[in-house]
Amino acid sequence: MILLGIESSCDETAASIVQDGTNILSSVIASQIDVHHKYGGVVPELASRMHIEAITPVVDEAIKKANIKIKDIDAVAATRGPGLIGALLVGFTFAKSFAFARHLPFAGVNHLEAHIYSLFLMKKQPGFPFIALVVSGGHTNIYYVTSYDNFELLGQTRDDAAGEAFDKVAKMLGLGYPGGPIIESLAKTKSPDVISFPRTMLEKGSFDFSFSGLKSSVARYIHDNNITTDDEKAQIAASFQEAVIDVLSQKLINAAKAKKCKRIGIAGGVSANKTFVEKLSKKAKDKKIEIFAPPSELCGDNAAMVAARGYTMIQQGNTCNLDHDVFSKNKIN
Ligand code: KG4
Ligand code: ZN
Question: How confident is the model at residue 42 (pLDDT cuts 50, 70, 90)?
């Protein structure tokens, strides 16, 4: 089955052609980072307009790069939510119209499930069951995954997402957007142990997260110490990143222990952070837990993961019709 996947939930317009759910023939991503960069975050109305401009050329390019013809496409999948409503509408409506015009089955995919499916696009996939962390600009969710369709939500953030904390701290330091990659590269130049920022673990046994205290603590530190130099900023970046990594890693190991599970998969934009993957792998090794992380092109938003999730939905007859609409808040579990 040749599937066209489309993603437009936030600030990436993406299209991908995937064969039989796992073989990526093309994956095209048009990022809007340059547009949102100067505002220090995503401006929803601008995002919608950019998606409208990008969607047709991006789909055309995905078809061309896959070396197929439009008539070869057997099914269509697009992100249905959660995300920015105006942004989602562009990709979802495009995909719905495409499927309707060509009489093809159409799946409306949950963006968070799609991120988990990025782990099934790797050569070495995690076997079931495994603990999955979807960690991005909008979410920090831990799941217990027992099959291709079963995602038990164990915990989530009560305030900021981990990626959002990276973005906000980068903004405070005047480093630009998105903050994650900038903070990661600055952090490499300093020891992480110099400033002791809080690690919020919440109640014993909880798999929820809270990053707002850490964010406030960084803001206070910047204010009280009158931080201005690049050297000082790099020090804050290193110590802040370490605090986030410590909490994410500890909660993941705790979840694996609670579920007596020997596999952990991470997905979403923040899983592109190599320092995180290295430190988590090191902690997990002692406990004989195996870590799975997608290659960087599958960590952030992309349409290959949407096509992969759409493939299983279409096989099960879990499709959308013309009446179906997008949703902004998470519907998973
Ligand atoms: O999955 P994604 O592309 O979009 C959402 O669904 O949110 O994730 C984007 C988020 C941003 O907050 C960005 O700062 C963060 O992922 N991010 C990183 C890194 N690369 C991207 N965070 C930490 N380290 C990175 N290397
Ligand atoms: Zn995402």
Answer: confident
Find the CATH number of the domain harbouring 177: 3.30.420.40
Tell me the per-residue pLDDT of 230-276, one tens digit each, with 9 for 90 and over: 999 999 999 999 999 999 999 999 999 999 999 999 999 999 999 99
Which atom of ligand 1 is nearest the CA belonging to 178? 14
Burial of 50 (0-12, 13-18, 19+ CB in 10 A): buried
Tell me: do 141 and 252 sit in the same domain: yes
Lowest mean pLDDT among 25-39, 76-90, 262-276, 312-326: 25-39
Question: Closest ligand 1 atom to the C-alpha of 166?
Answer: 14
Q: How far is the CA of 305 from the centre of ligand 1 (A)?
A: 16
- Which residue out of 7, 166, 169 has the highest number of ligand 1 atoms within 8 Å of its CB and is therefore the one to mutate? 166
Task: Please state, in angstroms and rounded to a whole number, the distance separating the CA atoms of residues 254 and 99.
Answer: 43
Asked whether residue 94 falls in the same domain as residue 217, the answer is no
Mean pLDDT estimate for the chain: 96
The alpha carbon of 303 and the centre of ligand 2 are apart by a number of angstroms equal to 10
State which residues form the domain around 28. 2-116+301-315
